[in-house]
Design a protein that fits this description.
A four-stranded antiparallel beta sheet has the order 1-2-3-4. The chain is 62% helix and 18% strand. The chain is of the alpha+beta class. Helix 1 (2-29) crosses helix 2 (73-94) and helix 1 packs parallel to helix 3. It is elongated and about 65 Å long. The chain contains three helices and four strands, in the order αββββαα. It has helices at 2-29, 73-94, 99-127; strands spanning 36-40, 43-48, 51-56, 66-71. It starts with a helix and ends with a helix.
């Protein structure tokens, strides 16, 4: 039971941090920083933990682009469940037995995966 609680706590922190980063990025650029994007003709839909963004692009010269950000509890719940299960699986194999060390290990692991993955994708797009 303790592993589930530690994994859930780490998942909540990761989701809240990613929600904050995505919200700040949306305020600055109108796009989410960490999201899955689905592109279609004149629309782009972004899915991220806790957020759902819709971008509708103008098709006529006198129109303007439309951007909309909505809180999505379903996407937040899905992200919490996925991160919790992954965290629990990691703790099942690599637990130190001390709750704070386990929590920090999970949090740092998630951060490395997010930041590292994002950095590798950006470098790949820039140089390949």
């Amino acid at each position: 039971m303790q592993r589930w609680a530690i994994a859930f706590a780490a998942a909540i922190v990761v989701c809240l941090v990613s929600m904050y980063i995505n919200y700040q990025a949306y305020q600055e650029t109108k796009y989410l920083e960490w999201s899955y994007r689905n592109h279609g003709g004149e629309i782009t839909i972004e899915f991220a933990p806790g957020w759902h963004a819709v971008h509708i692009y103008a098709m006529h010269p006198d129109d303007h682009d439309s951007h909309k950000l909505v809180f999505s509890p379903v996407l937040l719940a899905i992200a919490l469940c996925v991160f919790t299960v992954v965290g629990w699986a990691v703790l099942a194999k690599l637990s130190t037995g001390e709750p704070w060390k386990d929590f920090l290990m999970l949090f740092v692991g998630f951060a490395v995966i997010f930041y590292g993955g994002r950095m590798i994708l950006e470098l790949w797009e820039d140089y390949c």
